[in-house]
Amino acid sequence: MAMFAPRALRSIRTLYLSRGLATHASPRLAVPASLNLKTGQTFKGTSFGAPKSVFGETVFSTSITSYTESMTDPSYRGQILVFTSPMIGNYGVPHNQAPFDSHDVGVILESQGIQCAAVVVGDVAEKFSHYAAVESLASWCKRHNVPGITGVDTRAITTLLRDQGTTLGQLAIGSDALLSPPQAEEYWDPSLDNLVDQISTKTVYELNPTGSVKIAMLDFGAKANILRSLVRRDAAVTVFPWDYDFNAVKDQFDGLFLSNGPGDPKHCMPAALNLRRTLKEWDRPVFGICMGHQIIGMAAGLDAYRMTFGNRGHNQPVLALANSGSIKAGRVYVTSQNHQYALTLQEPFPEGWEPFFINCNDSSVEGIKSTDDSGKKVWGVQFHPESAGGPLDTIEMFTDFVNTCKEHRAASSFSHKVVEPAIKVPLETVAPQVAATA
């Protein structure tokens, strides 16, 4: 038996070493919490994060990783986010600052603060282990005044939401969790509010001003990685509020980008009407993602509708119906998505437009584009090519867009003027700061 002792001793030492690499968590008090749904179901657990109760729209995400990116995505504003993955928080939260330069936009994650109203997890990790982590998920949530619940069956909640659709809910913490669930009229419906107006930048600002091509962005609640994907391709990006009339400055730019954002796109009809004029008068490239895609669709004459439970996760397959740049017709691309609304698939499609992508699971419209004979260069996709958590099957769409803008610039004889007021301000003054204490 003695001959096996050294091996056993090494195993014990390895075990203690691996445990020592994880951060030691402080004891967490078992504060009661409950997730109450408007449809009558209640799930009991314990609280972490901020000790406050909130209302919101209960949705689920099938993402296995990147909980920090999901929680800082402005498109989750007003929502109680249920993670289907059993354990959340095991790799902690990183320091969320980056330089403002040609490769970054001020933050590591998707915005300065947590954007969702609350989080629901099966098992929150009390210890975390990652070389870039500086705090736990619970500590991060508490610092940003966002409550969470753990110890509930998130698979059962997800099944329920898939059957009955996205449902209004309340996360009750502490003494509130011991009370009877709210009455139906007490639940807050965030879709009735213009969430884009709450989250969009209020000030025009510029990133990477020395870039070789000038791109304007309408900010409906832009993820930082969209901006990052543009500046890393040597674009100078000027960001405008969502309802800014781009037509007043359109000739000073080589392309227009419409970002993602939260809520019902019909609250943004003024932007769609402005864009309709832009598309009629302007021949330069236009690209939209998520909410931006829906705005392009409404400008083209399509309608937007509310899906039963939306698509949220990193594993949505889409089929390309047309060739365009790096996208090849007939290929299935795996994509990251976060949306509750979609464009209506109609026959015939508006003149000058064609479907670009279709969802392989539910046949919803995942993209539209201008036809080749329209003389326009316009694309819109419902998914996120830039997804920081992956997959990156369609990331080269950013390269396609920037290169098309550069080609148009090279072929044009117009001169650029300075945009006023093109004030360079830090990213924290934009939408992320607005929702950091939500």
From TrEMBL:
**Name the record gives this protein:** Carbamoyl phosphate synthase arginine-specific small chain
Q: What EC numbers are recorded for this enzyme?
A: 6.3.5.5
Q: Which EC main class describes this enzyme?
A: ligase
* Similarity-based family: Belongs to the CarA family.
Q: Name one GO biological process term.
A: L-arginine biosynthetic process
Q: Which reaction does it catalyse?
A: L-glutamine + H2O = L-glutamate + NH4(+); hydrogencarbonate + L-glutamine + 2 ATP + H2O = carbamoyl phosphate + L-glutamate + 2 ADP + phosphate + 2 H(+)
Annotated CDD domains: GATase1_CPSase
The record's Gene3D superfamilies line, in alphabetical order, gives:
3.40.50.880, Carbamoyl-phosphate synthase small subunit, N-terminal domain (3.50.30.20)
